[in-house]
User: Fold this.
Amino acid sequence: MTVAALSQTCGAAPVLWMRPRHAGYLGPDLGVGMHDTAIACLGLALDGPFTVDTAEHGTFVTSSVFVPARVRHRIVSAGRIALLFAEPGSAVTGCALSGSTGPSAIDPGEEAALIAAARAGVASLERLISNPKPLRPIDPRIEAIVREIRADPAAHPHAADAATAAGLSEYYFLRMFAAHTGTTFRRYRQWARVRMVFVGVEAGYDLTRCAADAGFASPSHLSETFRRTFGLSLTAVLNSRVTLDIR
Assistant:
């Protein structure tokens, strides 16, 4: 689905795609503000280095960055960027250098290949990240909950429900969920609801229905959540010349 036109200066149409293990954006910087994504994000500069502003870790210029979930930041670029949002267990998480709780450089051995693949397009980038290096596996009980929420954000409305399904105490479940996914149970459910909104948009539904189907209390609740998560409004995304590719 392609939605309305952006300025001709932006070049090729941007693409926003979603897969079971990751989501991504490829195109011009849309002018995002400070935000903290519900899951980790990998950023790649395709036309020269970009600037990364953070709330707690300063400002720096780089050609790539891995930002853990819930770290306030924004990427400012004069050229095209690629953003990969890493679902729990995604190959994308294997690109990060370990040991940092804030934004960090990615493995130098990975950066050039990732940028080259992103410049070639979504298909090339997906082929590259489809063969991840070995990662610490997610506990199967947590992975099962993640799959169920991704398929239906209403599957486990409360942490206590999910903990019971996993056969764990609520306290231990919440600790395990954060340790194995890199984000909190509440923020992952929020991310799953946002994913569902894009599924509805691609199907041609209006935002009122999309918000309700995804479990948001109102379109304004969706709007507030989206801006906090991505640093710009959902309307701004849909008013860009973006192509949605959801599978």
